[in-house]
């Protein structure tokens, strides 16, 4: 019975995105990155016969699916020299989206002599259980195998398989990832220290669970990003929401707003415009990367609007500057991506991140209500979220006291202009659990491809990360060659 697609259509029509608006968790702003450029021939695609369920022994648990991973052999020093392996852990989207833009591995592979491995997250891209996406996403019975614990067990299986196939038993593995993938990298090192020597966890908000971080922390930083650029821009955005509501309440108000913002189809309600603007501001703050600096682009346009422009006209000017010269804006007919669908399930199962707005932000007041969210997910999937499971399974509470006693070799990197840095690890926990952060950095910027325009502080952050990883590997080689090595 194809119940789920029908529910998705019904709920997406009747539930405002404002209720459960969670900014994207992705290393890249997929609206602006050039993701369509062809891949180098150095990337070779493989498929592993992956186990559906790593944690049970029921007959159906042994079902397998084709799990995609990609290898770049170009820089590898070989198994005979125990040259290292840099493994990128895919997150909530097809692996293809990250190969061209997440450049930390390729930029540094030569100096490590590293084999580069990229592993796709189950249920995304071409790594689909049950033979087809339609069946895999059908209902909670098939979606139940779609979670982070299964995903990192997949990664362990693939890495052990690759090392066996390449006779690379002694090659140390360093895992890396960004955003949700950064969480997976940190959790992988904690759960599978026998597989990964260390982890680079970029912009990983592992503390934005279970009320560890204040609910309004994300939107407080997003607001600060705009306010730091321009006080008047911040004030215009803060005051615009009520102005939009006032215009929308008039008999021809929605037509006025549709024309002002050049919407691709007539607005049906003010929430459509507000959701669009809310998303635009959070994406701009989160991915406020050099040299473009989208927050500055938006604020310069808002502040630079022609004399006599009202609040709504100024906001529209910010939209046009940020989005570029398009025939229309706010395409409400956009098809949902597999990331939209997949992340909704992950949010409604284990990835319960409570985000609210406070009175001191530039966003409308919004309070995350766990009870309402549980009702929403129950209606959608007939299962309830487990809001405490992430901290139960991976930890998070009292991290300064606890993690340093059993964890090691993790770099938690953050840019403090990234709103998700509020849920990141920002202080060293031990000599090998290290927090690197840059005041002007943004989401996952350190693991993106290096460019000539990169500011010096970003160059230095990456160099520090590389040197830390080199230290881990050097110590590993020393231990490997020790006569007392067991």
Automatic annotation (TrEMBL):
Question: Any keyword Glycoprotein?
Answer: yes
The question of whether Glycoprotein is a record keyword is answered with yes
Q: Which residues form the signal peptide?
A: 1-17
InterPro entries cross-referenced by the UniProt entry: AB_hydrolase_fold, Peptidase_S28, Ser_carbopepase_S28_SKS
Recite the UniProt keywords alphabetically. Glycoprotein, Hydrolase, Protease, Signal
Query: Which biological process terms from the Gene Ontology are attached to this UniProt entry?
Result: proteolysis
What's the superkingdom here? Eukaryota
For this UniProt entry, the molecular function terms from Gene Ontology, in alphabetical order, are: dipeptidyl-peptidase activity; serine-type exopeptidase activity
Q: Which PANTHER family match?
A: LYSOSOMAL PRO-X CARBOXYPEPTIDASE-LIKE ISOFORM X1, PROTEASE S28 PRO-X CARBOXYPEPTIDASE-RELATED
Which family does the entry's similarity section mention? Belongs to the peptidase S28 family.
Q: What is this protein called?
A: Lysosomal Pro-X carboxypeptidase-like
Whichever gene encodes this chain, its name is LOC111440480
């Amino acid at each position: 019975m194809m119940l789920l697609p029908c529910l998705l259509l019904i709920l997406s029509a009747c539930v405002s995105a404002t209720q459960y608006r969670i900014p994207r968790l992705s290393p890249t702003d997929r609206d602006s990155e050039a993701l369509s450029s062809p891949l180098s021939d150095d990337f070779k695609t493989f498929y592993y016969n992956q186990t559906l369920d790593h944690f049970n022994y029921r007959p159906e648990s042994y079902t397998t699916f084709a799990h995609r991973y990609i290898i770049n052999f170009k820089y590898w020093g070989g198994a005979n020299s125990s040259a290292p392996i840099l493994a990128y852990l895919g997150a909530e989207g097809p692996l293809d989206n990250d190969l061209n833009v997440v450049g930390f591995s390729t930029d540094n592979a030569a100096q490590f002599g590293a084999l580069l491995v990229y592993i796709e997250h189950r249920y995304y891209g071409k790594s689909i259980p049950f033979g087809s996406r339609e069946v895999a996403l059908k209902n909670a019975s098939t979606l139940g195998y779609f979670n982070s614990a299964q995903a990192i067990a997949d990664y362990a299986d693939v890495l052990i398989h690759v090392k066996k196939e390449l006779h690379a038993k002694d090659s140390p593995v360093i895992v890396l990832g960004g955003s949700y993938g950064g969480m997976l990298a940190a959790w992988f090192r904690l759960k599978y220290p026998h597989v990964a020597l260390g982890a680079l966890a970029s912009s990983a908000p592992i503390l934005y669970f279970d009320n560890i971080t204040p609910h309004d922390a994300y939107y407080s930083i997003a607001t600060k990003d705009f306010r730091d650029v321009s006080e008047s821009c911040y004030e215009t955005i803060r005051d615009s929401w009520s102005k939009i509501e006032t215009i929308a309440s008039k008999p021809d108000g929605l037509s006025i707003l549709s024309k002002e913002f050049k919407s691709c189809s007539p607005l049906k309600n003010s929430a459509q415009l507000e959701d669009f603007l809310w998303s635009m501001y959070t994406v701009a703050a989160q991915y406020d990367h050099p040299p473009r600096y989208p927050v500055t682009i938006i604020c310069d346009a808002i502040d630079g609007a022609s004399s006599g422009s009202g609040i709504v006209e100024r906001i529209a000017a910010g939209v046009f500057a940020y989005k570029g010269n398009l025939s229309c804006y706010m395409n409400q007919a956009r098809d949902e991506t597999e990331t939209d669908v997949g992340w909704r399930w992950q949010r409604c199962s284990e990835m319960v991140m409570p985000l609210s707005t406070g009175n001191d932000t530039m966003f409308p007041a919004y309070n995350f209500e766990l009870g309402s969210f549980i009702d929403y997910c129950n209606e959608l999937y007939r299962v309830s979220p487990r809001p405490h499971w992430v901290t139960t399974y991976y930890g998070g509470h009292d991290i300064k006291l606890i993690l340093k006693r059993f964890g090691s070799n993790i770099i938690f990197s953050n840019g403090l202009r990234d709103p998700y840095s509020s849920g990141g690890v920002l202080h060293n926990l031990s000599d090998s659990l290290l927090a690197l952060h840059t005041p002007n950095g943004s989401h996952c910027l350190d693991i993106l491809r290096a460019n000539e325009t990169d500011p010096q502080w970003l160059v230095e952050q990456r160099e520090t990360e590389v040197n830390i990883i080199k230290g881990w590997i050097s110590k590993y080689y020393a231990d490997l060659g020790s006569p007392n090595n067991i």
